[in-house]
Amino acid sequence: MSTYIKEQSEWKERWKNFKLDEFKCKCGCAAVKVNAEILDLLQDARDQLGSLSITSAYRCSSHNSSVSSTGANGPHTTGHALDISVKDSKHRKQLIDYFTAKVTGLGVAKSFIHIDNLTAAEGFDMRPNAWKY
């Protein structure tokens, strides 16, 4: 069973390099829901790779519908998905190499990579999957 973090009181010390605010919906509703396992993975990555910047994490259904072709029920609405900023091509390769075997969804764009740990249990039968934007 997945554990979700939805408020500051649920935040764990082990995610020392992140703040809950980084994972909130950016539409102004400030809703947040993030899977603890993806937070653990992200903290491990930051410990090994250095600073990582989250560009998009949780999105409410309304916000996701307005910014993504995945509509009201896309990966970001689940709490299991996030986008990490890419500094340059070397950094992109480093992120791809690190996350490829650790996630079920990997999307690659020029300025970010998308990672998720979604499965059929969350309604995403097309996992594992990789794509480019």
Topology (SSEs and partners):
Blueprint: E1 4-5, E2 34-35, H1 36-49, E3 54-56, H2 61-67, E4 81-85, H3 89-99, E5 105-108, E6 112-116, E7 129-132
Parallel strand pairs: 5-7
Antiparallel strand pairs: 1-2, 3-4, 4-6, 5-6
How would you describe this structure to a colleague?
- The strands form two sheets. Strands 3-4-6-5-7 form a five-stranded mixed sheet, covered by helices on one side. Strands 1-2 form a two-stranded antiparallel ribbon.
- With 133 residues, it is an alpha+beta fold.
- The N and C termini lie far apart (31 Å).
- It is built from three helices and seven strands, in the order ββαβαβαβββ.
- Helix content is 24%, strand content 19%.
- The chain has one domain: Muramoyl-pentapeptide Carboxypeptidase, domain 2.
- It has helices spanning 36-49, 61-67, 89-99, and strands spanning 4-5, 34-35, 54-56, 81-85, 105-108, 112-116, 129-132.
